[in-house]
Amino acid sequence: MAALARQHKAxxxxxxxxxxxSTVASAFKLSLRHxxxxxxxxxxxxxxxxxxxxVLVWQKKLRLLLDYRRPAxxxxxxxxxxxxxxxxxxxxxxxxxxxAQEAQPLNYTxxxxxxxxxxxxxxQRLGLREILAIFISxxxxxxxxxxxxxxxxxxxxxxxxxxxxxxxxxxxxxxxxNTRDKKDPVAGxxxxxxFGFPFILAACLIFSDPFPHTLHGFIGALYxxxxxxxxxxxxxxxxxKLTRSTARVSTLIFFSPFLSLVFIRIFVGEAIRLSTVxxxxxxxxxxxxxxxxxxxxxx
Length: 299
Known about the structure:
Elements (H helix, E strand, L loop, with lengths): L1 H20 L2 H8 L5 H22 L11 H28 L2 H8 L2 H12 L2 E2 L2 H18 L12 H21 L6 H23 L7 H28 L3 H5 L5 H13 L5 H19 L3 E2 L2
Antiparallel strand pairs: 1-2
């Protein structure tokens, strides 16, 4: 009974994470109607720092921050430049240029980017299954980016597509270098967001006005800070910790991008294109195929 209760709890945490992550594309797009990319990132980062600090207090892990020595702090600072600073600056810029229904699936190719970067950085090589997965996923990218006009190869917004794909490189680099960090993940994420704050503030002061001019904008930043950058990550970690099968819980994440399209239609008002759905199916199919394969280390 205890094992069943743990598994049930794991599913609840995972379902909550998937549901919340499905709303953030809409939250990004709606917030960017009232805020610049730098304003949204600045205030979302402030909120996420407070949120993660509260989680550390609630979990009685605040003392873990005292275990960080100079090398670990420098590492956390470097990772903070990648995420939240560079990653969200690039991602929000992509959302500013593209419809949410395009930016969200393109950003979802980060798992494929992770496989590609694992070759030079983790000394891994790809099997035929992973190579096929890459081609399938990036075919989906082309379908979405060209609105299905494959032969014309005319991208709806070339810069936006480039930024959305570039964000996956930053995200993949962050997780590759983060795998070497054996510290508590919530404490590490908290420090990343703390160290990223000065860079975000400086960029906001240079390129934008740091203060939102509308209540709607601040509410959007609050939502993004709490849910995209804050407690949802903790929900997902709890799900993985409680489950008897990581693979069983992880498959739930593939519902997120499709559910996200529903929220984009309802809240953002975008008419979802058939090419978006078809392209997303290819991206997810590639991701599933890639996850079922095994990266092999070079001897």
